[in-house]
Amino acid sequence: MLLLNAREVERLADMPRLVAAVEAGVREQAAGQVVLPPRLNLPNGRGFFRLMPTVMNGSGIMGFKAFHGSVQDGVRYFIAIYEQASGRLLAMMDAHYLTAARTGATTGVATRFMANRNARRVAVIGSGLEARTNLLGVCAVREVERVTAFSPNRERRAAFAERMGLELKIEVRACDSPESCVEGADIVVVATNTTGKGDGIAFRGAWARAGMHVNAIGSTMPKLREIDADSFARAGRIVIDCQTRQIEEESGDVIDALANSAYDRGKVIELQEVVAGRAAGRADDDQITLFKSVGTAVQDVTAGYAVYQEARRLGIGSEVPDFLELKTF
Amino acid sequence: MLLLNAREVERLADMPRLVAAVEAGVREQAAGQVVLPPRLNLPNGRGFFRLMPTVMNGSGIMGFKAFHGSVQDGVRYFIAIYEQASGRLLAMMDAHYLTAARTGATTGVATRFMANRNARRVAVIGSGLEARTNLLGVCAVREVERVTAFSPNRERRAAFAERMGLELKIEVRACDSPESCVEGADIVVVATNTTGKGDGIAFRGAWARAGMHVNAIGSTMPKLREIDADSFARAGRIVIDCQTRQIEEESGDVIDALANSAYDRGKVIELQEVVAGRAAGRADDDQITLFKSVGTAVQDVTAGYAVYQEARRLGIGSEVPDFLELKTF
What is the value of pTM for the model shown? Predict the structure, then answer.
């Protein structure tokens, strides 16, 4: 069994590889080869304890993510990956960075199928870890020429622009307002630090223009908000990464849009349908499209397995011999 | 985070301590301080993948057991323990031995409340790991003077008798038949190697005598059998370690007894009710009583936490620094 800490995982989590892994996992899911129950969400004193397992019978792996904590105290993430045929526990890894990275990779998959082919200009709202990984996800699937970035704190947005400009080797410009940030953008990434304070709206549907593709990843619990009801109303197509029922229970943005009659279920498609080619990511070049994700165990386990394979190739991580003894009958 | 392998866990899993830990955990459950969802049971190609989480708000810990495999290929068990207040992952441990040990500890708790106080003679049907741990559990709560043991293989039952005699420092005698083994016994442990082959019945209700207490732990899946329908019919009181619905879905013995109209729900009580003193373990000295367990996450997590505490006290295990980085918002 290979034990990988947060720094090792980050080093191994190359974005184009993760996008390919998540896309393959979603395709396997669309082929009916995946067992994916609703995540278990247990309350505890100050926060939550969530378990997300999946069994992937196409690729022959299985595993789970366990994460726990609260917005006030912080959250810890952990992924375990098993090989079905041998029954071996392959790896246990810190999934702090990987959770953000697989979310970005999933945004990459959605953007590949939903954004216009010639999309070149990307706007990022947010300056944290998810803003970075989601921008990397988009850049893995489109020839991005220009990035604009906004977050309320001037120093943070300037630092984000500088870091991402060096990393991507393209122009990344910090903007003074979200409106100026998204103006002229073909693709928008909304990845905000949604602490549940204030109304938290970071992107408004009124700002969307014809042909724009919006990815929103921050609202993964009922109290978390980042896009307004108009964002759902103005989108001609809404793609989600999980089952309809789950997103309507878990995402504060979706719950609010439903309450404001702005969430038309007739426009909503699961990502697996799009990846499998059973539904189009967009109807035409002018449609406004929206990808709303809350995360799935398929994303975690396929990304974790890709990291494990790369760790083996490069000889990174700590080997723990004889962990999980086999009980025979 | 402390990593404990199978040998370390076995060394730390002192039975009287585990019995006390499981009893405290069941008491906490009875006080309404425990979140315990039905276990997640996912099918995979050749077997199963089960996840059993619990959040214990009285003792301030939480965790889960994950186990997977099949009777043909063998099973691997893994337990993680967290501290709620700090959010820290305290330990990850191999739970091969611990699963058998906590089952034995739970049998100890049930036997404490259900067997006659002056019970001295114990019969064990089975000669494997669970036969051993369940006998240890019984011996932790009663002054056992004599043990008889049966399993179909002569060499295995002789070896079991020799080993347990040395370990317990009392007479342990191997018997040639299950009937002679249980004759005169006050307490019976049925802990057989239920592989699902044949009809698998190792104990029959017809053999029970007045005042006998029977513990049966082997039938934890629909295809696994070890006690017949009569065992349920002849018992005046049946205590189970989980919810009624769960045991009726998971235990082949219970499913068969139900099908043969031998499982009277009016006689069935949850262990937590007995431990909390809201129900008696037996009505009188002559009643035949039956404890049927399938296992719960409360047993796993309380036993795992007891092992962790002992590991810290003795300085056993491998420390993994900085595993599970805290993500702050």
Answer: 0.93
